[in-house]
């Protein structure tokens, strides 16, 4: 699979997050938990939501997958949590990432991740942090085959 990859630096950001453990099938329930909490707190979303994946299927059993759904928020909000429900606010530092775009259903993103990993290795980089998916389309308003997602992996030169 041919993909176009960009190496870029992400900006530091303050995010509201929900920390999750378990299969990715729980992703649809994580979004409303996070966005209901953001509304309850009066925070202002300041960018598209993202999934941050600290390990991957195949590395650990699905029940041991660690991930977060994050949403950048605006204004001066102090870091806090996670609370007993896994919700909190934190500062995320900028990082060098290898990034590519994926268009299509969320559950078919795997081959694009594999192509990105191949590109990283073939171009003298290695992964040095979590993988991120930045969700640029609203799945409630966009057909699955039209969904746009930016895939990003934190990298460093080997």
What does it look like?
- The chain has 158 residues and is α+β, with helices and mostly antiparallel strands.
- The chain has a single domain (6-157), classed as Multidrug-efflux Transporter 1 Regulator Bmrr, Chain A.
- 18% of the residues lie in helices and 37% in strands.
- It has an eight-stranded antiparallel sheet, covered by helices on one side.
- The longest helix is centred in the first third of the chain and has 15 residues, at 27-41.
- The protein starts with 5 loop residues before the first strand and ends with a strand.
- The mean pLDDT is 96.
Furnish the topology, listing elements before pairings.
Elements: E1 6-9, E2 13-21, H1 27-41, E3 50-53, E4 66-72, E5 87-92, E6 96-103, H2 110-122, E7 125-135, E8 148-157
Antiparallel strand pairs: 1-6, 2-4, 2-5, 3-4, 3-7, 6-8, 7-8
Please describe the structure with a list of short key phrases separated by commas or semicolons.
158 residues; alpha+beta; Multidrug-efflux Transporter 1 Regulator Bmrr, Chain A; eight-stranded antiparallel sheet; 37% strand
Which band does the percent of strand residues land in? 35-45%
SSE order, one letter for each helix or strand = EEHEEEEHEE
First-last Cα distance: 23 Å
CATH architectural designation: Alpha-Beta Barrel
Binned, the helix content reads: 10-25%
Radius of gyration: 16 Å
So how many helices? 2
The CATH homology group name: Regulatory factor, effector binding domain
Main-sheet strand order equals 1-6-8-7-3-4-2-5
Task: Indicate the CATH class.
Answer: Alpha Beta
| CATH fold naming | Multidrug-efflux Transporter 1 Regulator Bmrr, Chain A
């Amino acid at each position: 699979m041919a993909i176009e990859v960009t190496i870029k630096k992400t900006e530091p950001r303050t995010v509201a997050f929900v920390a999750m453990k378990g299969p990715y099938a729980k992703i649809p329930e994580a979004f409303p938990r996070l966005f209901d909490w953001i509304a309850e707190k009066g925070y202002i979303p300041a960018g598209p939501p993202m999934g941050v994946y600290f390990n991957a299927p195949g590395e650990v059993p699905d029940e041991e997958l660690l991930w977060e759904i994050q949403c950048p928020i605006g204004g001066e909000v102090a870091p806090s949590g996670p609370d007993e429900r896994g919700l909190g606010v934190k500062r995320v530092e900028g990082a060098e990432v290898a990034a590519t775009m994926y268009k299509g259903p969320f559950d078919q993103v795997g081959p694009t991740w594999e192509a990105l990993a191949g590109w990283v290795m073939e171009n003298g980089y290695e992964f040095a942090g979590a993988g991120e998916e930045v969700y640029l389309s609203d799945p409630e308003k966009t057909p699955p085959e039209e969904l746009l997602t930016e895939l990003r992996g934190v990298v460093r030169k080997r």
